[in-house]
Structures
1.
Amino acid sequence: MLLQALTSTAAALCLATALVHVLLVFLHVAPTNSLSQQYSRQVNAWVHPLFEQNWRLFAPDPESVNRQISVRTKHTAPDGATRVSRWFDLTAVDNSAVKHNPFPSHTAQNMLRRAWSSYLETHGDDDQPRSQRALMTQQYLTNIASKRVAAHRGGNFGAIQLRVVTLPIAAPAPAGGPAPAAAAPRPAETRYLPWWKVKADSHGN
């Protein structure tokens, strides 16, 4: 009898959580209205950063650039010397997991890319967080990078640094029309983020 009651309670809690989740995500992606404005703080607290949505049903927003995100680690050796690792290409790992895979995971397709997009939205060019959401986004990006480099390289490290290379994608030629005049390709932009400290338990060590 007790087991049946516990099972019913657990099922009810799961159903209630699912309904609340659907409602909050709907308010997040729906056009701005009085309800979403009234509960914007609760909606943002639930959605960011794990459930953030970035889709347009009637106005697709395709990527206009390619980004290569790499990470390197730093640690202090027993002799007191500072050791800095080689760059590790996180984007290449994701691309490899997606290529030729008929059912690629959401993690490989979107997690790193969306984490970086959120970082751009919450940080200025000086990489200084100025809100609680910015701090949370920075920690989220740190956790992703540190866990992934630890999974592929192992070892202990106390800080990480990200490098993001942004390469613009040329505009496609108009359908059925003449090809546009060749324009000088825009150069790639390379951005180095500050060194961020990493807790030992944040990368599985």
2.
Amino acid sequence: MRSSALAFYIALAVLSVLSVSQAHVGLLRPCARGSPRAGCPAPTGGQQPDYDLNSPIGTHDSKTLPICKNTIPQAPTTIKAGQSLKTTYTVGAPHGGGHCQWALSYDGGKTWVVIKTMIRTCLQGVAGGQAYSVSVPIPANAPNGKAIFMWLWNNAIGNRELYSNCADVVIQGGSNGGKLSGVAPLFANYGTSSLLIPEFGAAGQDDKHAAFSSRKKVTVTVAKK
């Protein structure tokens, strides 16, 4: 094969990978589990790089993938309690924005405490290919130690989907043990038994925002070290 033809097929393969990874929306920083992005730690435990990091984990019809999308922990990012964490995202198709939730777990993803919620305005007005970031306040009383940081997104327009990425983190500057209270996440459009949030791209359409007000209260307790 001539060098020019070989270069063409290599470029085509690279563009194919990039087009897949840029579809929809995914967590860029802090590094999501399985992320193939530059500057992120290599996947561990036999996990392969997730070149489809921006794809949904399910729809209202089915659960395609688990919460977090990738379940194998990787090298953590250090974050500070009492400070705002700047999160950034790769945006392919923002689907009119929608609802976003951010949460922490100290027990491997069994229990989550929501630390920020955006109703309707998350990713709103963002075009594909644009940079997008959100500052997420880490509670000052967040217990120190290893945790999982999760992002959830229910899109406003298109298939009724749920997106999720998780980053492994180490929290510093908080409490040595203690409790963190809040509400549990709402996992909507994630299987037939979940809440159906219909399309709400136009003003006046039902976005089920009342369901977020009735999320279950939860408290997690972390032992002192």
